[in-house]
Design goal:
single chain, two-stranded parallel sheet, 2 strands, 54% helix
Amino acid sequence: MLDDWRAQLTAHRVVFIGDAVTRDGDLIDRIGEGQWQRRTPEPLAPQIALLGHRMAERGLAGLPHALTPIYVRRPDAEIEKERRAADAH
């Protein structure tokens, strides 16, 4: 895919960011001939805390006990517990 996009990206400043940057950094450097930049994203939790702090400073934050978390996936501890239970049977 990078080969396909190379011609269209050569006239632009290109910055790759995300989990794949670490995994595919050598490929990005080779295909981009050293012209493309790579950035590793900041850890998510501190960024969320910073956003919450900024909202609180503007009076936009709710009461902490009224927050309801929305989980994208089950916690690792639950997944591991189920795996161990399945392995035991």
